Every structure is written in structure tokens, then in C-alpha cells.
Amino acid sequence: MTYQEVLQSARGQMGPCKVCPVCDGRGCRNTIPGPGAKGVGDVAIRNYSAWQNVRVNMDTLCASGTPDTSLELFGHSYRIPVFAGPVGAVQLHYGTKYDDPAYNDILVAACRDNGILAFTGDGTNPAVMVAACKAIKAADGFGIPTVKPWDVNTIAEKMALVRDSGAFAVAMDIDAAGLPFLKNLNPPAGSKTVEELAQVIADAKLPFIVKGIMTARGAEKAVQAGASAIVVSNHGGRVLDQTPATAEVLPEIADAVAGRCAVLVDGGIRSGVDVFKALAMGATAVLIARPFVNAVYGGAAEGVKALVDKLEAELSDTMSMCGAHSLAEISRDMVRL
Asked: Closest Cα to residue 277, out of 82, 116, 86?
């Protein structure tokens, strides 16, 4: 099954998502609930187009050989520097074919079986986190639960589930404080001070990933709070209209925290060439969300395999043509901003 066949199979099964030939945010702008961005909906479009405006510098005057696309992070090895991004409330946003437990059961196991891992989502229904952690536990802890920025008591309850899952790291999408359907709810979710986040990280007792960083100042604060990694992310444009694209801010953020924490990035990354660009601009790895939703809805575990195979082939080819034999050899002079 090719990824194009996966997309064809997914069409008509994903609620408001049209499974466009190019997933660039144009077909779903201002569609929430659904896959789109908030407000005028141009942030998702900017995320995609910003990567396309970065060009790669070809250089084949180098030794030949098959590039090593593997990544070491948090004491584990991955086939490629790509993780499936966290997605929650799939029935709300993508139709009724799967609920969150069924989606995570497929995604977490399939990612593990194909040499990467999945971040799992959280939701207003407590059963979402319970099921996500259950799927990770069944995969021998090979997944990263993502907790929303709830009140302190709710976070403590969810962290207990995380520890029981055996996960070797945990994430918080701190920018989820801006999700429209999380506002004015009980339990409340909201932004955190550096001191509040530092306490959450200390209590977690696991490598902690802070997702939703869009400025060098924000990255500095995450490091100050004790983050082991950050994710440069604007939540796909779903939490604040008119933000920059992630590709636009990645280099300055990577420079600001160089060597002090891992830097991941998401938003509009659709190919192995895009993955190469992100690494050249300072990222340690990337998160990709929407294409993995397409993969599960269009082909279940086989769809996930098709996507990972595609991304690996594209990344390996780009590395070969740009003279990088390993991820460590990918440098900023290999792209033109």
C-alpha cells in the first residue's frame, strides 16, 4: 500500500477533512471543530508555505554511501527523526470512524513497529488520557503522553497515569490554553508561570517536553523551568490567529537554546525534504500530525507504515544529494532561507 493509496482510501471517511492532495491548510481554513486553523485560518497555510520557501543546496561532490537517518534521543533509537504528533478528540474533528482509544491503539503500536514513536493527545473527557496511557503501556512504554495545561490537581491525576504507562518522557502542549473548546471548562486549563511549570516538571520525574514555544524568550523560560526538550509549535494555527509560521522562528529559537535542550518542531511538515530542512535549521527532530491521521483513517497500521517508509526514502535521498551521511552532518549551509 502506497501513501497515495492511503490518501485515496481516507477520502470521505474523515468528517470535515477533505484529505486534499496537498495538505496545506487551504481546504479547511477556519474549520473548528475540524482540522482547520483559528480566525481567518491563514496560520496553517503559512506553516506549509514557509517550508516550501526554504530551498535545499545540492552537493554531490562527496563520498557515496547510504545515509544513516537514525536518531538517538532520551536513551532510545529511532529509525528517522520523526514522531507522530498528538491528536485528541478525533471524533469531534475527523468523524466517527474511530474514537480516541481506537485511534491511539492503532497509531502507538504501528509507530513502535515502524521504528518511531507517537505522541498521544489529551481531552476534556478523562477517558482519553486513560486510553492513551493504556496504549502506551501495551507498547512497552514506547510513546509520549501529552497532558494539557490543566489545574494542578488534574495534572497530578494525569501524571499518575503517565507513570503507570511506563512512558520514558511526557509532554505538555502549553499553548492548548488557547483552544476554544477548553476555555471556561471544569477542570480549567490555562497558561502557566515559569514557577508553576517548574513545579509540574519536578513532580513529573520524567524528561519533560514543552510544546507550543514560538519565541526565543519562551524557549528560555521553558529551559529555566527545567524542560528537557521543547516543540516549536503554534498548534497548527488552532489557538491564535496571525502567528508566524514555525519555520520562520525555528532558527532563532534553536540558536537561543543551543545545547541546553532538544528542539523539536511541527506545523506544515509534509515530506522527508521538509524534515531535512527542519534539521538544517536547528531542529533535533520533527512532529507530524495530520498525515498520520490520514494514515490511520486510510490504512490503519499499514497506512502508518506507508507514511514512515515514504518519509524515510525522501529524507535519505535528500541527505545523499546534499552530502550528509548522518543527521549530525546536516548543517544550516545545506539550505537557502
From this structure: 82
Q: Which three cell numbers stand for residue 119?
A: 505522541
| Domain range summary for the chain, segments of one domain joined by + | 3-54+71-326
Torsions phi, psi of 314, nearest 5?
-70, -40
Overall size of the chain counted in residues: 337
* Helix, coil or strand: residue 298: helix
The three-state secondary structure class of 65 is coil
Return the closest-CA partner of residue 286 out of 132, 78, 129. Answer: 78
Q: What pLDDT, in 10s, does the model give residues 178-200?
A: 776 676 677 677 889 999 999 99
3 state SS of 9? helix
φ/ψ (deg, to 5) at 25 = 85, -5
Q: What is the C-alpha separation between 264 and 78, in angstroms, rounded?
A: 14
Of the candidates 100, 159, 170, which has an alpha carbon nearest to the alpha carbon of residue 132?
100
Q: Give domain 3-54+71-326's CATH architecture.
A: Alpha-Beta Barrel (3.20)
Residues 20-39 pLDDT 10s: 999 999 999 888 888 999 88
Residue 110 phi, psi dihedral angles, 5° rounding: -65, -40
| Whether the Cβ atoms of residue 51 and residue 59 lie closer than 8 Å to each other | no
Query: How distant, in Å, are the alpha carbons of 18, 155, 176, 191, 198 from that of 187?
Result: 33, 10, 14, 14, 21
